[in-house]
Design brief:
Elements: E1 5-9, E2 16-20, E3 28-32, E4 38-42, E5 47-53, E6 61-66, E7 89-97, E8 101-109
Antiparallel strand pairs: 1-4, 2-3, 2-5, 5-6, 7-8
Length: about 120
Amino acid sequence: MVGQAVEFVNSDPDPHNVHGQPGVVSGWNFIIAKQGSSRTVTFDKPEVGIPVGCDIHPWMRAYLSIVPNPYAAVTPADGAVTLKQVPPGDYVVAVWHEKLGTQEQRLTLAPSGTATVQFIYK
């Protein structure tokens, strides 16, 4: 979440490079040389799908998303997510996939209500 620290930890005996290539927030590129060492980065703006890789081991890559609120999740294998304790209101619910992009749907959540949205990627 915006303002929350992200800790990158090296749990491997080999050194690793953490190279983030965002489009909105400032990029970073640092090495974590020793097993057990770490570095923390905090982000001041939201951005979804930031590519993060290791220049030493190019097959290692991930995506980092910084969101403006606590209502986010990574989907499990079945794709189902439940967001709890969301206050009533009008929302845009969005999903992101590294190759298939972003989809959005609007919804209104009533007090003490629930809502279901379904996204289909083809």
